[in-house]
Amino acid sequence: MVEFRTAQRTGEFDVSISAESALVVGSSTNVPVSTLTTVATFTATASVQNITRISCSGQESGKWQMFIDTVLIETRRATQGLDIQFTFVNRLGLSTGAVVDVKVTHEYTGETPDFEATIYGF
Q: Which member of 39, 80, 81, 99 has the lowest number of beta carbons within 10 Å of its beta carbon?
């Protein structure tokens, strides 16, 4: 990921470069109705402490939630499309050992769809 931000009035460039990569690719199959289910988990290390985005998809719409150390941080709902993203413009910095969980819940009675999530960062 490369970000270019221009400083006003000076014409100078502030360049921030990071090598974003997929840190974790997770999936959960046959998810039962009304059941909060972990799809992907990432534990920050001394060398990898920044999350830039989380990409989520599934066979059905769902309520996606991101937790850090069991604390709910953000909720997104996939309704019309089956894909959503959590995007952190200035990256989400984590402490070493912090645990990020991406979880989903769906309300399709009689259905047991599959869901996937990828956590990106550097």
A: 80
Question: Which of 121, 39, 49, 43 lies closest to 88 in space, CA to CA?
Answer: 121
**And the tokens for 25?**
């690719």
Cβ atoms 18, 121 nearer than 8 A: no
Q: What is the maximum alpha-carbon separation in the chain?
A: 61
Indicate whether this model's pTM tops 0.70.
Answer: yes
What domains are defined for the chain? 19-121 (2.60.120.1380)
Measured from the Cβ of residue 112, the count of other Cβ atoms closer than 10 Å reads 14
End-to-end Cα separation, the chain, in angstroms: 10
Q: What is the pLDDT of residue 18?
A: 57
